[in-house]
Amino acid sequence: MTPTTPTTSIPAADAANAAVQPSTARGPAEAVPPTWVPAVAQSELPRLTPPLLASTERAVGEVLQLDRAADTVLRGFFRANERLGRRDRGIVAETVFDVLRNRRRYGHQAQSMRGSLPRRLTWLSFVLRFGEGMLPALRPDAEDEAALRRSLASDPGGMPQPVRLSLPDWLHAELLAQAQAAGEAVPHAAVERLGQSLLGPAPLDLRVNLLKTDRETLRASLAADGVEAEAVESCDTALRVRGKPAIDRLASFERGEFEVQDLGSQRLVEFAAPRRGQTVIDFCAGAGGKTLAIAAAMRSSGQVYACDVSTARLQRLKPRLARSGATSVQPFGLDSEHDPKLRRLAGRADLVLVDAPCSGTGTLRRNPELKWRMLPEAVDELNGRQTSILTAAARLVKRGGALVYATCSLLERENEAVAKAFSDAHPGFSDPVFLHIRPDIDGSDGFFAARWVRRE
Q1: Which of 8-17, 53-62, 170-179, 280-289 is predicted with the least confidence, judged by mean pLDDT?
Q2: Please, are residues 324 and 296 in contact by the beta-carbon 8 Å criterion?
Q3: CB atoms within 10 A of CB 174
Q4: Same domain, 434 and 288
Q5: Residue 133 shares a structural domain with residue 270
Q6: pLDDT digit string, tens, across residues 206-247
Q7: How far, in Å, CA of 180 to CA of 76, rounded?
Q8: Residues 149 and 269 in one domain
Q9: Same domain for 446 and 314?
Q10: Are residues 272 and 141 part of one domain?
Q11: Between 278 and which of 98, 149, 350, 411 could a Cys-Cys bridge form, CB atoms 3.0 to 4.6 Å apart?
Q12: CA 32, 203, 315 angle in degrees (round to 5)?
């Protein structure tokens, strides 16, 4: 599900200060990576004009207010700056998201520089991604140039791990405690691998719409349009695209032959295992990405109910549904998980998928602002909603049917803890089978899922 931004968030001013606060949470057994600055050829450097640099700094400043989702801020920024072309918008967006992913490290390194925080973080992003070849475009004075060169040459291993990985102290501490509880030989090394995997951009994955085509046919069609895509072995419907082409302009997209969907999300649908002819309820459908994948897996047979409390999200499903060719999906608006309309579905479903509202920590590559907006207390609040939604959804499962609880969270208190509490309270369901998907191991967004079968 789309990550839920907690209602309790860090005020923008406090979050800006948090970016430069030192941390004492560094352990003696940390695995310190080598300096990660890539060697980039001069021909690969972005063409950065003074107006584009100024636009990028303004966009970074707006996003750092942390009052809205980053992609929402950028859409508004681009509407207000229509003169920015596609290439320039790409540079702005990539820089904004790089700053958000690496915000704490960049904030730490920016302390010796002058000027506004957005300018300092923007300059560091360009130099640390592309090297000293960016300095002529930035035109720093001698003092700032020296600071940028020091940052470029510095070893991140000298930073505390939460700073190096740009994690809030509370999130780092929770991930470290989980690694220790899991029996990791070197817990800090396990957190290092996970944290590093969250610092880069997410890949572009497509789900082949089996109602319209097959994977090899689509791959050939994309290649004919100049889009390079590779089949992903771990999922029969997944293609991973090289680069960031404008795929929404392709004829194959208009024909509904694919949807953009993360590999982990596709694997979650495979784990849920919908079958032809079944009655399936996607209880937190959102804009319907998993709903459409379920309908395609069922070859548009049976019945799929796409439930959500947001009319706006269900509205976004409609054009996707029309493009997909699926005829078995029924949008089903709810006022809550206790909506009386659900009574007519009680005990009828072969499969209920609960893709619950969560912290979204498994999606920090795509939604890096979440780690600066959430607080641990807000995750506690989400736990109550997760339990309530899962309990309500369980009533819809018929005997012999399956219930799947899923999140895009890396936190055990949203995952195994919720599943255990449900099992303890519902002896009529089988012991759960678990699915764990991690960015550092599986190369996709992070997901958790538990699957039960109703026995009585």
Answers
A1: 8-17
A2: yes
A3: 20
A4: yes
A5: no
A6: 999 999 999 999 999 999 999 999 999 999 999 999 998 999
A7: 43
A8: no
A9: yes
A10: no
A11: 350
A12: 130
Q: In the listed set 107, 131, 154, which residue is the last one of a domain according to the structure?
A: 154
Number of domains within the chain: 2
Is the residue at 146 inside a domain?
yes
| pLDDT surpassing 70 at residue 28 | no
358 is catalytic: no
Identify the residue whose tokens are 């960016």.
134
Q: Across all residues in the chain, what is the average pLDDT?
A: 91
Q: Which of 235, 284, 307, 408 is catalytic?
A: 408
Range of the domain at 78: 36-154
Q: Give whole-number Cα distances, 219 to 134, 206, 262, 363, in Å.
A: 36, 10, 17, 26
Residue 274 and residue 140 in one domain: no
Per-residue exposure over 313-324, b if at least 16 CB sit within 10 Å of its own CB, e if not: bbeebeebbebb
pTM (2 decimals)?
0.89
Report pLDDT digits (tens) over 37-49: 333 333 478 999 9
- Which distant-in-sequence residues (6+ apart) come within 8 Å of 345 by Cβ? 281, 305, 396
Single out the residue in 154, 189, 222 at which a domain terminates. Answer: 154
Residue 344: which CATH number?
A: 3.40.50.150
Q: Do 147 and 273 have their domain in common?
A: no
Q: What is the 3-state secondary structure (H, E, C) of the chain?
A: CCCCCCCCCCCHHHHHHHCCCCCCCCCCCCCCCCCCCCCCCHHHCCCCCHHHHHHHHHHHHHHCCCCCCHHHHHHHHHHHCCCCCHHHHHHHHHHHHHHHHCHHHHHHHHHHCCCCHHHHHHHHHHHHHHCHHHHHHHCCCHHHHHHHHHHHHCCHHHCCHHHHCCCCHHHHHHHHHHHHHCCCCCHHHHHHHHHHHCCCCCCEEEEECCCCCCHHHHHHHHHHCCCCEEECCCCCCEEEECCCCCHHHCHHHHCCCEEECCHHHHHHHHHHCCCCCCEEEECCCCCCHHHHHHHHHCCCCCEEEEEECCHHHHHHHHHHHHHHCCCCEEEEECCCCCCHHHHHHCCCEEEEEEECCCCCHHHCCCCCCHHHHCCHHHHHHHHHHHHHHHHHHHCCEEEEEEEEEEECCCCHHHCHHHHHHHHHHCCCECCCEEEEECHHHHCCCCEEEEEEEECC
Quick check: is 344 in a domain?
A: yes
Q: What pLDDT sits at residue 2?
A: 55
Per-residue pLDDT, 15:
35
Q: Report yes or no on 436 lying in a domain.
A: yes
